[in-house]
Write a structure and sequence with these properties.
Shape: globular
Number of helices: 4
Helix content: 25-40%
Distance between the termini: 21 Å
Length: 153
């Protein structure tokens, strides 16, 4: 499948990632799914709600911090779903950053990913966004590159 974003959406994601560096940023992609693919209509910035309590709930090492993990609060997901539905939009993807790490999915990213979403990852090196990639899960729950088209706004 293809994920289409505008140059403005791309800039919003990159700016969010640079602003939160050295922590991971995260957010939602609201849009539409049509036969050609997924089209982002709105980039929804969210807070990285990772905490020691979250680590405990997910059986993750307590030493992990927002610099290496992210979580979107379930209330934020529900709010986005409701507001999107009111405008005939749905959550079609999630984005997050990898501070000082390549824009490739981690095992943790894979473990918690949902098959219907696109996953945009932006690498941030020393505070500057670099590579931006897009991924989706295949039938065996492994990430595969997904085409990302950046359309003019």
């Amino acid at each position: 499948m293809i994920l289409t974003v505008t140059a403005t959406h791309e800039a919003t994601i990159r700016t969010h990632a640079e602003r939160t560096y050295p922590e991971e940023c995260c957010g939602l992609l609201l849009g539409e799914i049509t036969p050609p693919g997924k089209t982002v209509v709105e980039v929804w910035e969210t807070e990285n709600a990772w905490s020691p309590e979250t680590a405990g709930e997910l059986s993750a090492p307590a030493t992990l911090t927002k610099e290496r993990r992210y979580v979107i609060h379930p209330k934020e997901l529900l709010r986005a779903q409701k507001q999107g539905r009111d405008r005939q939009l749905r959550i079609i993807g999630i984005y997050h950053s990898h501070p000082d790490y390549p824009a490739i999915p981690s095992e943790c990213d894979r473990e918690y990913a949902w098959s219907e979403y696109s996953y945009v990852i932006v690498a941030v090196e020393q505070g500057q966004s670099t590579e931006l990639t897009n991924w989706s899960l295949d039938d065996t729950h492994h990430f595969q590159p997904e085409t990302l088209v950046i359309a003019k706004a």
